[in-house]
Amino acid sequence: MSTQLLTYLFVGLSFALYIGIAIWSRAGSTRDFYVAGGGVNPVVNGMATAADWMSAASFISMAGIISFMGRDGSVYLLGWTGGYVLLALLLAPYLRKFGRFTVPDFIGERYYSKVARVVAVVCLIFVSFTYVAGQMRGVGIVFSRFLEVDVTTGVIIGMAVVFMYAVLGGMKGITYTQVAQYCVLIFAYMVPAIFISIMITGNPIPQLGFGSEVADGSGLSVLEKLDGVSKDLGFSAYTEGSKSTIDVFAITAALMFGTAGLPHVLVRFFTVPKVSDARKSAGYALAFIAILYTTAPAVASFARLNLVDTVHNTSYEQAPQWFSNWESTGLVGWEDKNNDGVMQYSAGTDNEVKIDRDIMVLANPEIANLPGWVIALVAAGGVAAALSTAAGLLLVISSSISHDLLKQTLMPKITEKQELLFARMAAAVAVCIAGLFGIYPPAFVAQVVAFAFGLAAASLFPAIVLGIFSKRINKEGAIAGMLMGLIFTFTYIVYFKFAAPELNNADYWLLGISPEGIGLVGMLLNFAAAFTVSRFTAPPPKQVQDLVEDIRIPSGASAASYH
Predict the structure, then answer these.
(1) pTM of the complete model beyond 0.85
(2) SS3 for 355?
(3) What is the C-alpha to C-alpha distance for residues 229 and 291, in angstroms, rounded to an integer?
(4) 469 CB-contact burial (10 Å; exposed 0-12 / middle 13-18 / buried 19+)
(5) 197 neighbors 298 (Cβ within 8 angstroms)
(6) Which of 31, 351, 388, 456 could pair with 181 in a Cys bridge, judged by C-beta atoms 3.0 to 4.6 Å apart?
(7) Which stretches of the chain score pLDDT less than 50?
(8) What are the sequence ranges of the domains in the chain?
(9) What digits encode the pLDDT tens for the residues 373-391?
(10) Cα(292)–Cα(241) distance, rounded to whole angstroms?
(11) Is residue 334 within a helix (H) or strand (E), and if so which, with residue range?
């Protein structure tokens, strides 16, 4: 059976599975739609959380970034994993104790203000739409290569599938779909990693292969070989970075705190029966996530070695099949600058080969000449990773609009049936907008996602943390902080990425911090504004202070109260 046919088969079967689960678990109430009825098993929720959190950025783009940037790319690895630990240990149990459906719901109740709720909804929409743009782009990239359609058509197909199970099933459908997607994506990530690790190092465990000697008789380790290859091509050593220490710190911190403020991950902890189950599911999710994240550096290094071996100083007429396959998508290309018919891959202006970093994981099996079923499996995994996160994001957008904006603020008299209808309508509109972002993305996948995390760190994270751990922060302080953080960070990103991209370098950045890391500064401004304004305005009411005191004692075995 041809690779193309296998790809259609694997992707088609996975789509049928996802839609079947959505129909089986169709949401019949707002509680089903928002939090899957609140009765999800911790192991199931842990697996669903892992799929929700490991987006197209994790599956498709992260290893590509590390592959091209070397040590500098590790900020994504450190930031995302560190952030998840922060979320799981610091925030999830407390929010679960509070028992609200959505993050704006928590903020609106804690800060006793409809204005605070609406501001939180605005922040959430900014974060979620920025994040979902990267996911839909990931879907488009997968489809453009493996289903041989253009990126736009690929995005539209992805929109249709997400619409089916996100709008029909709500959180209940998404949860069980994400369990299936986790199984697909982790299998798809690990199988080629094991194959390639054996080929390059002789070690079947990628995490160990990463630190082993290359099986070419040179006696060099993988990293030593990479350092030498990178220097020979005019790049800096793979294990050396070019980013400043302040920028590395800022990006890592922004990704960490942004992860801890991501609304689509936080809401997952509202789907389990008890506070103790929230802690358990956080631990399970961390274990499931670790499988991919400990493998990513190995995948990145193997991909880089294979790329150089198969492309550099190779005649274009004898170009490997994978290069021709991806060339048709426009994501790789060759320009013969010296008219010698040979592809030269190097640093600087003499480079003739264009490689989109978002393709590295997807192309890795082809570069390594692995069997067709492995290539098809990776295609299905890439789609699963992107769609799982896209669905979670679309759900929090729709629930925030229907529950927080309409039910709790603008239209309090609507029935549960009407609220559920509005939630589905909001999800449908969100799918369409997300698709447009996927067709016209602002940057490569992981970078778009980094912007989303920066916005989350600058706007939602301080309000959540202060809402749990400070009795003195009032509604005025929270609103001022969220607006300060969001406006500053969004303006900074837009200015350097769109308004004046020619100035997007360290000479013009504030304190030498790039747009990917500016969320840290936005977060600090948020904290400063919240504390300052709260100090000069009235403290929160006594019942709110008592509520905070109660939340801070998360009695592990007790059921959360839904008020």
Answers:
(1) no
(2) strand
(3) 28
(4) middle
(5) yes
(6) 388
(7) 554, 556-563
(8) 3-439
(9) 888 888 888 777 777 677 7
(10) 23
(11) strand 332-334
